[in-house]
Amino acid sequence: MKIKPFIALLLPVLVLASCKEDFIDRPSLSGTTTGNYYNNAEEVRGATSTLYSGLPWRNYESRAQDAIGDVMGGNMFTYTDVEYLNFTVSSASDRIGAAWGAFYKIIGYANVMIKTFEEKKAAGGSAAYLDPAIAECHFIRGMVYFYIARTWGAAPIITDPGETALSGNFNIPRYLQRDVLRFALEELKMAEEGLPETDVPGRVTKYSAKGMMAKLYLYNKDYANAKAKAEEVINSGKYSLVSDYNGMFTKMSLDNNPETLFSIQHQFAQDPWGTGNIKNPDRGAGALRTAEADAWEMYIPTLDILQEYEFGDLRRKWSVMEHGWTNLNWKPQRVNAPKYNEFMANGFRYDTIQPTADGGSLNATRSNIAKYFAGPGKSFGGEPVLGQNSGNNVVLLRYADVLLIYAEATLGTAASTTDAKALEALNLVRSRAGLPARTSFTLDDILHERRVEFAFEGDYWYDIQRQGYAKAKAIIEKQNRGTVTGANYITNFTEDKMYLPIPAGEIVQDPELGKEPVPYYN
């Protein structure tokens, strides 16, 4: 089942007009009222569905998520976003601007909806369908501010864009990271309080909020609360690991599966741009480019991530294409390419010896990313693909994360643990990957497990970052970020690289963003 985005979000009551800063989205000041809108659950849920859509998330999930989470984290090699590979990111980076704009646009949507729904309630609207919708908005707002705090550290907090716009005071400061994280947590607590126990697949519930709170608590090293919230999700019995690991990321039939706590909802469409999942071409092997599916392999696995997998780890072939990798259902064909067509006739095999013009693959690390690559198109044995677009969701929180959060939070500050429940959680993840159970584990064991479990999902940089500067530096400097023709090790990692710079254009418009952060709470 898919959550259909309510494109009519552009109804006057929710029209967002540009303000002086990109991070302040405000409602139209045209005087439109809510009187004729949001009179039933269907209209309200139609509006909140837009918060799940790829439309507002597009500029983050398309490339910025990869550059920040996996290129910086040492999982992805690229010739395009080399500043993230080499830690020379400037405030003029396109990816920084894209992520910032996407995050504050989503927050702007949530801000306007919260205000609108509260006004509707005050005018006599039913709390039965308005309160859960308000809670959905708090979940999204809390989650996005958590992402902002992890990415930039100190950052603006905007909750009432209309009041800000009317005041004419656009000199908004950065607030201390601890206050941005506190704000995010408070939002998630309101979501937890107001969301239902269950909903249709794809919609967030009380347990989505608990899972995200567990992740935030872990980031804050509040191990007791991280463990407690993760345990509530586990004990609910509402989630389970999906046996088809690769299918979670490549098959529309597995969208909103029992492992998913929150995902960006994609439609199989090219228009509007961003409705579909557009990760496909950036990851796909060029040998799989067809008349239906684009594939230009902008991001490929690093040599370092390839060395991280244990022998026998099934996640390697589920996540990575290497010499000998096959999908015999894929039979791509091309016009006027007889050698290529002959090579592919009996099914696709990843080959680093065959000439590239005839179906071989010979990139800088001799590997490609299988995760989120839906294939060469339906006519050639893959999932439906329209050029750059596929219909599979992008998962931002799944049950495997909750299990590993529980295990790590149980470990806490100890050197190792043999706690039975923690081992059970960890070994559920390892068992799916075909690996033997551990009888004890350390923090490094957990970080290893998280790295290979969530490779190419945009999360590993934050796992490195939350270790603190000294350990982060040690992790980064050990990584080989080079190619098969030459190793490359980072020697310029300094503490100021732990967070990304504010986009240059935002500081020009609001000089307060270039100053030291201030407290948000008294």
From TrEMBL:
Originating species: Salmonirosea aquatica
Pfam families per UniProt: SusD-like_3, SusD_RagB
InterPro entries: SusD-like_N (IPR033985), SusD_RagB_dom (IPR012944), TPR-like_helical_dom_sf (IPR011990)
Protein name, as recorded: RagB/SusD family nutrient uptake outer membrane protein
Domain of life: Bacteria
Keyword line: Cell outer membrane, Membrane, Signal
UniProt similarity note: Belongs to the SusD family.
GO cellular component, one term: cell outer membrane
Annotated signal peptide: 1-17
SusD-like N-terminal domain location: 84-218
